[in-house]
Amino acid sequence: MTRPPVPGRDRxxxxxxxxxxxxxxxxxxxxxxxVVGGGIAGLAAAAVLAERGARVTLVEACEQLGGRVRAxxxxxxxxxxRGFHAFFRQYYTLRALLRRADPRLDHLVPVPDYxxxxxxxxxxxxxxxxxxxxxxxxxxVLRSPTFPVRALPSVHIPSALELVNVSYPxxxxxxxxESAQAFLDRLRFPDGARHLALEVFARSFFAHxxxxxxxxxxxxxxxxxxxxxxxxxxxxxxxxxxxxxWAPLGRYLAGQGVEVHTGVRVEQVEAGDxxxxxxDAGTLTADAxxxxxxxxxxRALVADLPLDDADPxxxxxxxxxxxxxxxxxxxxPFVVLxxxxxxxxxxxxxxxxxxxxxxLLDNVTVLERFEQGAADWTGEHGGSVVELHGYAVDPHRDPxxxxxxxxxxxxxRVRARLLASLEEVFPETAGLDVVHEELLVEDDCGLVGxxxxxxxxxxxTPYPGLALAGDGLRVDWPIALMERAAVTGVLAANxxxxxxxxxxxxxxxxxxxxxxxxxxxxxxVLRR
Length: 528
Description:
Helix content is 29%, strand content 19%. The protein is of the alpha+beta class.
């Protein structure tokens, strides 16, 4: 097989070909698939299936597509979203999905840096680092104020070598039962660097470091830092997510024949000779279903699927699968506070700033730096549009935020503490008034915990015609967050298509082996 061009700058990127099959479903045997969920995973599944001739109905409970990366208008024409997302250049599958509607990715613009600031003011920068490991790692350590060279002797070398000695999928299981915090305890990182590592990687998964799996932490170091030559910087959309990304992709899907139903909630999924999907707007029947919903919704929808009484072996597999599904947990609530200020923040402020040690605050985004709608508002009113994000605001760990509101939080206390932290990070905001504000509290993200990697659900299920998709699923490769959502959507579609004898879509990933294991040659194409 001829290796196609790599999708980015990393010549060691790995191609995972789809299972062989016919290029299209036969016209005389149409297949109808209902995709439940219009987030990244559902959009990816719908695209791959429709492009190969399936009749696809996509059902999304919200009025907009995008799932956890959606945006929506406020009553007076401003926009709100679920928080800042970074579109890293390692996200090959997500970028391939976006290219359906934006072939040159013109609506993604680069962010020149994303500094990470500690509570004492020390700041790490990823600007002007070499893109290729290990040069990026060496350069970062040499110039980092939070990882001084004099602290290197304290690092536990065998543990540190684990970061560059990974091999996937085996490395996933190596850390079963170990938390990110426990791993960094034995790694003996300098306190400052350790703090940022915990905050950036663990909390970006909406988890406290004691509950976040060490395997995911190591995998993310490999994906973004020690294993890929795509660099550490990322792109962001040039307008709100709906305008720049999902509405155009929805139009593309409609052009492929996909029936897109937004504002429709799925209430029940029933197995049988055909699948029945009951919604609050009517009933759909289908040959197959892709559940691309948030983890809590998925658990609820599969809970009542019956065991196969006619096949005891399959019934046992289904029983075990239901136990794994029911064991899933959701992460603590996250909070997004977007404020429209009556004056500008300092012009030198970065578009995005990660923070650690500023109470509940995990990052600050100055939206007019890249989002057209925010820039228009700023041009008209002369102020700034600033977004504050608290990734894991856990009332069980911080009783002061406990309340009876959404997610069990006292929203006014959370708001006050986030604004107080903003004044610490951007002191000029202390003299500015909030003209408008939007507060969002959600707790619909899955917890990437310390449990056994093999106990996590995968795209395939013991129910013929049912596939799962979403960023909480197990995948053999080192991917996460939005890219895992996109990849699982493709894999769910591939799983169904393979059963119908049709070839799905190839997937590219970062290298599967760390620097200590990598051979200095062009890697072979991996076959399943």
